Amino acid sequence: xxxQGFLRPExxxxxxxxxxxxQSYIDVKKTFSEVFKEKKxxxxxxxxxxxxxxxxxxxxxxxDSKNIARLVAELLREGHCLQPPPLPKPKEPxxxxxxxxxxxxxxxxxxxxxxxxxxxx
Length: 121
Description:
This is 3'-5' exoribonuclease 1 (3'-5' exonuclease ERI1 ) (Eri-1 homolog) (Histone mRNA 3'-end-specific exoribonuclease) (Histone mRNA 3'-exonuclease 1) (Protein 3'hExo) (HEXO). The protein has 121 residues and is mainly alpha-helical. It is 37% helix and 0% strand.
């Protein structure tokens, strides 16, 4: 959620491009619910489910990150492999538009250039 809800909009607002590596990530909440057969729940509920207490201030980015790392450590300790899905293939750049073919001039309409010879009087 943080990538979709915060990082991407913030980068757009500041005119920054995100690298492709940000296209792939491990959704810890989804992985946790699949592994432990729990419904998706809050970070505090996930910690409680594993017998852990939240450390720090809720919704503080640094403290939330540390607590998520503790959950990841629990998953790894129990032998669960955490792998992000493969990166999406980069989009092929669009080919530049081909120039339109110029219409061929009609030979009959071409004016002949040349000197006119005048008559002497």
